[in-house]
Amino acid sequence: MAFAQSNVCHGRCLLLLVLLLAAQTALCIRIPDRISDTTRYQPSNDQPSLRMAAFALGSFWRSEAVFGCLNGVVRTTVGYAGGSKTNPQYRSLGDHAESVLVEYDLRLISFRQLLEVFWSSHDSRQVFGQGPDVGNQYRSIIFTNGTEESRLAALSKEREQAKSKVSIVTTQIQPRWTFYPAEPEHQKFELKRNPLLLQLMGNLPEEELEASSVATTLNGYAAELCPPEIQKQIDAKINDIVKRESSDRKRKKPPPPIYSSDRTTSKDKEHRVSSSAKKKTKMSSNQVRASHILIKHQGSRRKASWKDPDGRIISNTTRDAAVSQLKSLRDDIVSGKVKFDDVASRFSDCSSAKRGGDLGPFGRGQMQKPFEEATYALKVGEMSEIVDTDSGVHIILRTA
């Protein structure tokens, strides 16, 4: 789905903003100026209720998404903290940990509530890593501002430890810290992998995207880490926008020619060929469009089921069982018993199921590598075999 990059984009972005405001009041807060290259906590003079908190809980791509959908969170930024190296970079971060800086409004959410989300969103007892990510940069840290936050952090750690004496909570509490924002390509990482959402926002420039509170929320939504009720609200609103856009395009379709094709002049034919060529080039030559069906399993990076109203964690479905289910669905599609989009709507464990599996147009570097390579290898209208990614197992239908 291609959207114009002018006033239409701004109008759609504003429409999306209005709809999201209805879903989450926290987005009403003014977005402060962009964070400087090195950030220490400083209370805002303009808005005294705004505060900064920082956490390290594994990969910062996921960490940013975890906090993005919380009511009261204004903006998130990924970066490096907890070490001594000056100006760390992704490929050279020294002794820092991948971290997320959370800007929040005390009127809507407290530091104590942020701590609850922190503890529930990672394994604080894992040593030298988090999940499949291994290394000191994935360690668990709470960065505090002042004695009260340090006290709350220490109490929450004690409660977490009291849940089990079998293993030790490895989380560090660090009262003095400097935060270095990561490179632009790491900011809002999950959102950037969703071309449809980027287009709905009007394909904002990098700097505007980083500063956008709507982008902060949609980054959590794209990662399917919003609370279930917010995930479903945003689903409904985005699908409504997509349907209206589709309906608008149909209404704007030119009427059929008055004369039959045998009376069309050569000039008319040339014009039609030219117009057709222009339509084909609207999606750049390095982009493709595809739909997919995703089945998650116990080895998936995000084990929470999108289809389950309570975000049930998938713990019993093995990869082999997921592959077997997907092969059976693929056979039914190939035999003509069912349509791809119907199967996607019913069985795909991805928010794109609401659109029959449609992911919209995307280019290289926006999807996981196995998914990207499989899609680009397909011809338009061709369906893939089983494709393995960190998300689960897929079948892909290339549509453009």
Automatic annotation (TrEMBL):
Q: Which residues form the signal peptide?
A: 1-28
**Catalysed transformations (reactions):** L-methionyl-[protein] + [thioredoxin]-disulfide + H2O = L-methionyl-(S)-S-oxide-[protein] + [thioredoxin]-dithiol; [thioredoxin]-disulfide + L-methionine + H2O = L-methionine (S)-S-oxide + [thioredoxin]-dithiol; [protein]-peptidylproline (omega=180) = [protein]-peptidylproline (omega=0)
Entries under InterPro entries matching the protein = Met_Sox_Rdtase_MsrA_dom, Met_Sox_Rdtase_MsrA_sf, MsrA_MetSO_reductase, PPIase_dom_sf, PPIase_PpiC, PPIase_PpiC_CS
Entry's Gene Ontology BP terms: cellular response to oxidative stress
Q: Does the keyword Ubl conjugation apply?
A: no
Q: Where is the composition biased (Basic residues)?
A: 294-304
Task: List all Basic and acidic residues biased stretches.
Answer: 264-273
Q: What keywords are assigned to this protein?
A: Isomerase, Oxidoreductase, Rotamase, Signal
Specify whether Isomerase is a keyword of the entry: yes
Any one GO MF term held by the record is: peptidyl-prolyl cis-trans isomerase activity
Please state what the protein is called.
Answer: Peptide methionine sulfoxide reductase A5
Q: Which species is this record about?
A: Ficus carica (Common fig)
